[in-house]
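W.,

You were right to be curious about this one. When I first looked at the sequence I had no strong expectations either way, so I just let the prediction run and decided to look at it fresh. Below is the sequence, 306 residues in total, followed by the output.
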Amino acid sequence: MIHSIIHIGANKSGSTTLQRCVFPYSKDLIYMGEDGEGYEHYKDIVDSMVTDDDIYFAAKEAQDLFASFLSLSEGKTFLYSNEDIMTTRIPVLCARRLHDLVPGAGILAVVRNQLTAIPSWYANHGAYLRHVPRCYWHRYVSFDAWMDYCTTFRKYSPIDGFFYHRILDVYASLFGKDHIHVLLYEDFIHQRETFMKNLCQILRIDDRDALQRLGGQRERRRNTGRELQYHRFRSSFFRDVSFSRYLPGGARLKRAWLKFLESGPPADGFMSDDWREKIAVLYREDNSRLAEAFGLSLDRYGYPLR
């Protein structure tokens, strides 16, 4: 039987780093997912699997896609990685599709304290208005306004994807609880060697090679405070004006300016104590169930708990 793992996220938990630096290069993996070979040719199929109702989902194409990767996986581990699975608006439907496609798979989730994950999501995504007419696209959104929207329409916002136990309970009911593997993002940051050894044991790949390839890299870092402040300014002033077009050496000056913005410290200080408390209240019950169900010491890293 082929050893199969489905990596379902979570967002802001190091997924991109693993997808870019580790997963495509292991000789013991047949990897399917972002930054994998040929991803651009099947991206629409896997995106549809995560986001679309059955009316639009190309079920036959998805079945053929997974079958083609699984046929190459004899003697290796088949790994499918997509961190957007945990933020899908059709979580049960998506889980059932994955179970139909890879019924014996193990489920891998890397979770992160919501008190740091949510601000990180906001700095890179929430501060940039999306899913609106083009004239409003990417306008600045304050943290307070974003969180007010997210908590008012929680079922339709990204913060719904941080209820880790609720999501994993769906997968446990389909794949079996013994097929669920949960790692902590905080271990990835503070105990990287231990984290990688545990990850590679789950994947059945060489941890020494994976650690060497990973090094100290982190992809998709949190946007800096300078980037966020400049985005706020440009949303209100000279929004559609490209200064570099009108200045001598404009392209060079633009590169220098962007480098300056990117070199600052990570964006912080925008989350009030009031929002911090509301976030803690929102997730503490689910986190406690997660810790109990999978024997996780979440208190080590300050996760909200009851």
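Here's what jumped out at me. The first strand starts at residue 3 and ends at 7. And, maybe more interesting for your project: The two ends are 41 Å apart (CA to CA).

Coffee later to discuss?

I.
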